[in-house]
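Quick one:
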Amino acid sequence: MSLKTIAVMTSGGDAPGMNACVRAVVRTALGHGLRVRGIRRAFQGLVQGEIADMGARDVVGGIIQRGGTILQTARFPEFADPRQQREGLRQLNSHGVDGLVVIGGDGSLHGALALHKLSFPVIGIPASIDNDIEGTDMALGVDTALNTIIENIDKLRDTASSHQRAFIIETMGRHSAIWR
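Output:
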């Protein structure tokens, strides 16, 4: 099968680096002569047909430093339903998409796997500040999250010391592979 058009989505919780990853996917694909489409609001947007063309300058120019994701994101547990998966596949086919890049966490990659099981070409890129994606050492967003935690703990330590107090700090990380 020859790919002519790919789509890209960011799914689940946002993570630092998602926009840079979208930009890299779009520019690399365009550089190889492929057409690129973006899917807004992840699997929910896929099922609802929120698919639009993406260009190198008009859409992804200047997005590297922006937080969040320009494609927006959503959690859509309904995609576990085979009817929703088939509708997503129908939307991809009706928009002329030959392959999909899913940037997201564990649930997002399960959605990507569901489409793969329907024989649709999919690439998954792990992105999660929790770093809890099985089979990966590091996901997009983890390094920035860890550095943000360290920076803020250093500041809080100074305040705690000045006030002779102990602080309890809770951070993200859920079932992180770093702490296993």
